[in-house]
Amino acid sequence: MKLIYLLIVLAPLFGAAVAGLAGGAIGRANAHRLTILAVAVSAGLSLWVLYQHVSGTATSFNETIYTWAMVGDLRLEVGFLVDRLTAVMMVVVTTVSLAVHVYTVGYMHDDPGYQRFFSYINLFTFAMLMLVMANNFLQLFFGWEAVGLVSYLLIGFWYKKESAIFANLKAFLVNRVGDFGFLLGIAAVLFYYNSLDYVEVFGAARAAPELTMSIFGTEALVVTVACLLLFIGAMGKSAQVPLHVWLPDSMEGPTPISALIHAATMVTAGIYLVARMSPLFEFSETALTVVLVLGAITALFMGLVGLVQHDIKRVIAYSTLSQLGYMFVALGASAYAAGVFHLMTHAFFKALLFLGAGAIIVALHHEQDMRRMGNLRRYLPITHITMLLGTLALVGTPLFSGYYSKDAIIEAVHLSDRAGAGFAYVAVLLGVFITSLYSFRLYFLVFWGEERIDPHAREHMSHLPRYVLPVMQWPLILLAIPSVVIGYFTIAPMLFGGFFGEAIFVAPANDVLALLSEKFHGSFAFALHAAVNPAFWLAVAGAIVAWFFFNFRPSLLPMVNARLKPVIEVLENKYGFDVLYNQGFAGGGRLLGRALWRVGDQGLIDGLIVNGTARTIGRLAGLLRGAQSGYLYHYAFAMILGLLLLLSVFVANWQGWF
Amino acid sequence: MFEGLPLLSLLVWLPVLGGVAVLLTGAQNAERARWFSLGIAVVVFLLSLALWQGFETGEAGMQWVERNAWIAAFDIYYHLGVDGISMPLVVLTAFSTLLVVIAAWEVVRYKPAQYLAAFLIMEGIMIGVFSALDAILFYVFFEAMLIPMFLIIGIWGGPNRIYATVKFFLYTFLGSVMMLIALIYLRIQAGSFGITDFYGLALPLGTQVMIFLALLAAFAVKVPMFPVHTWLPDAHVEAPTGGSVILAAITLKIGGYGFLRFSLPITPDASLALDWLLIGLSLIAVVYIGLVAMVQEDLKKLIAYSSIAHMGFVTLGFFLVFRIIAAGGGENGALLALEGGMVQMISHGFISAAMFLSVGVLYDRMHTRMISDFGGVATRMPVFAGLFVLFAMANAGLPGTSGFVGEFMVILASFQAGFWYAAVAALTLILGAAYSLWMIKRVVYGEVKNDQVEALEDINRRELLLLGSLAVIILFFGVFPAPLIAVMEPSLAALLQIMVPTL
């Protein structure tokens, strides 16, 4: 097995290295062939691994690959832990990645950085696999930062574009703020549990759940401190308020990576982290409450911002923020399996939506503004149908995958008695209405209504190379299938069948999914249950409102906008986070740096002390020059004075005065 | 195969004599001087690898020891040897000098023979510093090192070189005079100039503090620690590329080495008593200097300040040891701190060399180092851009590069001394990324800024060899630092025993 796991991880690394270092030599076609083959190998083997786990022939694998360093008795290692949670993540990562690789052949067909792009997305697949397959915190942190690096490189892929290189720097720095907490969390784990190995750490935490440390002048549970610090990392990577600001800007990158990295995989690393750390989080009610409340805030308020965006990708980006919030709500309610379940379904339908948006963008010659779209169902029928399916999944239409995963979260929060669960329940319910509203707003603006397409863009559509649209549509179709059906088939085992086994730990008192399972009587019955479910009717209401204003009576829209002007302004300013961060932190940091440099280094140290000393010495030397008068009696007098002084010291010494 | 040879003597004197030979023969023929210098540098580097190869990794004590009477009247010996602390630094020195010789190839046109000779002589002296086991011998090398660097900056330096050299010289000279007094005092107490003979001395705390402060004056300037750091940005800005490489990669390390070889083992009680001072200054270096680095407008100054911030982790790791043990971190925690600091020194040697060579590549083409003169370099120099981004990421401590290893270890260790130490130290994650990547954004990315950038040509094979080999090493030690740590661990564990005998 070890060899297979190594192959899964190293195949994309190899592809990345060859396409990156020898991309020019092997040419464009070979670059995409090689990298797609590499991901296909990973995906095929990952599916096989998952199958082995599902069929029960494989047990969880936990082995060291090599020792990174030995410090005293402390082993720092690189190794894999593959259990069912890992296997699910591996399949999600590699299959979405494979779809995105194929799609890229079309999307990037005319880009000069073709090979570089394939190299990066292969490298990303490697890094993400390292992250999810880690069996220790060191490797986790490696994967964590490595996906951040590739995200940085890909957001700034079009490095001449000022907005892109602003966005990638912002993304990296905001993530580094999260990593600041994350690294401290790892340090806390090492200090109190004496290991970085998951199994050993979880064992130590379980053995001493009451361990406390003093911090901020009070005694706090070690596990709470560690979990909150680790969660700061998760907030950065999974873009939760207030570290969410980078994700909408990351849309400056090419669309395939928006689908792969900024929707389906990398941004879910925080979800995976908390699920993986469930044996720690379960011992900290405080940490789980924080996760729950922050998730709920993100789910509701980021969805609202999505309502006022005009850029098609940004709408989907805010939707992603909001859906990530849902996942954290699930985790915070101790319904880890529901969080991971939504992660999986979301990966498919959100990747589908992004890739659909990308197909539109390419067809319209890089037009992203929905105000210059409309009626596109005539030109892009396959994109239209697949995106409709993705939208239906996202808003939670019964029987679609998103329905199962989202409804499970809502029901789980409803059943939870954790502090903040009441607020979270309201937030996720309102969120359903918002989700439906922005999703169908997008759908109607893009595919229905009057045609507002730029003439040049229409011209461009007819000149696309013939392979471009098909090669982009196949991944859409392939992603549409799981987007529709995967929830129906997997909800029973994943949520109620104990599928994750040892991988996820839930304290019996917290087990809301066990409560929910009593009400669960099969996938179809669960879908029928929608009729008595407020969430379903909220979604329907959202769709109707969207249809009314964006398709049936768009003429009423300006009036509504005028009435809601103050609210819309707040939303368009994204609650002021960007202003605060850009001017407060980035600007303030620069200001402080400049002040320290000018006043501290140049003024005090150099000006006053160093150069000041030089001047003083110069002056002293002048005085001394004055002493060299050339008169013998001056010198003699000085000698006598000196001798007397020396003598007095000796005398004092003899007398024992010192 | 080298067992019988006085390998350390060869490493010290071969480059010195080679340098003299280059001076004598190469003044008329630059080409011959280059090839001859390259030959010497390669041989020395290979000898340093032989030193590593013949080094007994599990051993804590001195190896490759040579000891002969030098000035018998004063008990001064020609006494050389290396342990796990100094051996990696010797190899690093030999490697860096080789880089500098190659980097100078077509670039240095003014008196190339003298330039190369200065670096070869410098190499011998620096290896001497790392391998001297007699205090006076150490002092002689320590002082002698100033002369070639003084000349390198003074002759091949920039327009403001006189101010920079005088500042550099005075700063460092002032410190080392204090050290000499301390060494003579120690000789009187120990009855020998052997550095390791100083270790067992049971000195009263008051005396230790005096000695500690005298040594601190010498080493803090070299590191450099806040607030005696302002010579470094000036020296870097004026120094030619090779000078910057050696300055950053090696001479700064002599400060850190001094703490390990002298301050901590000779005056452990004073180190304990004054650790608050050193820890405080180190943390200031990380945060204050990090912020200052961010706003620099000159590429070399930015990297110089980033060097100071990175060296803060070295001294932080070294002096946190006492607090880690007091807070219950145990031997593992203490070793994590010491080894983290030491790994940071080696890694910074590679990364700072890479950064300064990269700036050199740009400077050779554009004759400017102002960040505002660049923009869009990636368009014209894609290969260079890729490498430069990698180095910047390593500078920002990205896992998978050597820059991560030391910082990671020191931050983990500092948590064991207390949450706040780690919290302040970990700010480097944000600051390091901010100054490194903001610089990259302005220099490498963006639209081509002006005609000069438009005319840039990508790196040639010589430059690719230089930067590529550094990239490989930086990645290798990031992915697999175990061999490096294994080499230094026994010696650092022995040092720990001297520092905290109760452990």
UniProtKB/TrEMBL annotation, chain A:
<feature type="transmembrane region" description="Helical">
    <location>
        <begin position="315"/>
        <end position="337"/>
    </location>
</feature>
<dbReference type="InterPro" id="IPR001750">
    <property type="entry name" value="ND/Mrp_TM"/>
</dbReference>
<feature type="domain" description="NADH:quinone oxidoreductase/Mrp antiporter transmembrane">
    <location>
        <begin position="134"/>
        <end position="417"/>
    </location>
</feature>
<feature type="transmembrane region" description="Helical">
    <location>
        <begin position="343"/>
        <end position="364"/>
    </location>
</feature>
<dbReference type="GO" id="GO:0042773">
    <property type="term" value="P:ATP synthesis coupled electron transport"/>
</dbReference>
<dbReference type="GO" id="GO:0015990">
    <property type="term" value="P:electron transport coupled proton transport"/>
</dbReference>
<feature type="transmembrane region" description="Helical">
    <location>
        <begin position="34"/>
        <end position="51"/>
    </location>
</feature>
<feature type="transmembrane region" description="Helical">
    <location>
        <begin position="287"/>
        <end position="308"/>
    </location>
</feature>
<feature type="transmembrane region" description="Helical">
    <location>
        <begin position="117"/>
        <end position="134"/>
    </location>
</feature>
<feature type="transmembrane region" description="Helical">
    <location>
        <begin position="257"/>
        <end position="275"/>
    </location>
</feature>
<feature type="transmembrane region" description="Helical">
    <location>
        <begin position="171"/>
        <end position="193"/>
    </location>
</feature>
<feature type="transmembrane region" description="Helical">
    <location>
        <begin position="85"/>
        <end position="105"/>
    </location>
</feature>
<feature type="transmembrane region" description="Helical">
    <location>
        <begin position="632"/>
        <end position="654"/>
    </location>
</feature>
<dbReference type="Pfam" id="PF00662">
    <property type="entry name" value="Proton_antipo_N"/>
</dbReference>
<dbReference type="GO" id="GO:0016020">
    <property type="term" value="C:membrane"/>
</dbReference>
<dbReference type="GO" id="GO:0008137">
    <property type="term" value="F:NADH dehydrogenase (ubiquinone) activity"/>
</dbReference>
<dbReference type="Pfam" id="PF00361">
    <property type="entry name" value="Proton_antipo_M"/>
</dbReference>
<dbReference type="InterPro" id="IPR003945">
    <property type="entry name" value="NU5C-like"/>
</dbReference>
<protein>
    <submittedName>
        <fullName>NADH-quinone oxidoreductase subunit L</fullName>
    </submittedName>
</protein>
<feature type="transmembrane region" description="Helical">
    <location>
        <begin position="385"/>
        <end position="404"/>
    </location>
</feature>
<keyword id="KW-0812">Transmembrane</keyword>
<dbReference type="InterPro" id="IPR001516">
    <property type="entry name" value="Proton_antipo_N"/>
</dbReference>
TrEMBL record, chain B:
<dbReference type="InterPro" id="IPR010227">
    <property type="entry name" value="NADH_Q_OxRdtase_chainM/4"/>
</dbReference>
<dbReference type="Pfam" id="PF00361">
    <property type="entry name" value="Proton_antipo_M"/>
</dbReference>
<keyword id="KW-1278">Translocase</keyword>
<keyword id="KW-0472">Membrane</keyword>
<feature type="transmembrane region" description="Helical">
    <location>
        <begin position="345"/>
        <end position="363"/>
    </location>
</feature>
<feature type="domain" description="NADH:quinone oxidoreductase/Mrp antiporter transmembrane">
    <location>
        <begin position="132"/>
        <end position="428"/>
    </location>
</feature>
<dbReference type="GO" id="GO:0048039">
    <property type="term" value="F:ubiquinone binding"/>
</dbReference>
<dbReference type="InterPro" id="IPR001750">
    <property type="entry name" value="ND/Mrp_TM"/>
</dbReference>
<dbReference type="GO" id="GO:0015990">
    <property type="term" value="P:electron transport coupled proton transport"/>
</dbReference>
<protein>
    <recommendedName>
        <fullName>NADH-quinone oxidoreductase subunit M</fullName>
    </recommendedName>
</protein>
<feature type="transmembrane region" description="Helical">
    <location>
        <begin position="112"/>
        <end position="130"/>
    </location>
</feature>
<dbReference type="GO" id="GO:0016020">
    <property type="term" value="C:membrane"/>
</dbReference>
<feature type="transmembrane region" description="Helical">
    <location>
        <begin position="6"/>
        <end position="24"/>
    </location>
</feature>
<dbReference type="InterPro" id="IPR003918">
    <property type="entry name" value="NADH_UbQ_OxRdtase"/>
</dbReference>
<feature type="transmembrane region" description="Helical">
    <location>
        <begin position="419"/>
        <end position="440"/>
    </location>
</feature>
<feature type="transmembrane region" description="Helical">
    <location>
        <begin position="302"/>
        <end position="325"/>
    </location>
</feature>
<dbReference type="GO" id="GO:0003954">
    <property type="term" value="F:NADH dehydrogenase activity"/>
</dbReference>
<feature type="transmembrane region" description="Helical">
    <location>
        <begin position="242"/>
        <end position="264"/>
    </location>
</feature>
<comment type="similarity">
    <text>Belongs to the complex I subunit 4 family.</text>
</comment>
<feature type="transmembrane region" description="Helical">
    <location>
        <begin position="464"/>
        <end position="486"/>
    </location>
</feature>
<keyword id="KW-0560">Oxidoreductase</keyword>
<feature type="transmembrane region" description="Helical">
    <location>
        <begin position="198"/>
        <end position="221"/>
    </location>
</feature>
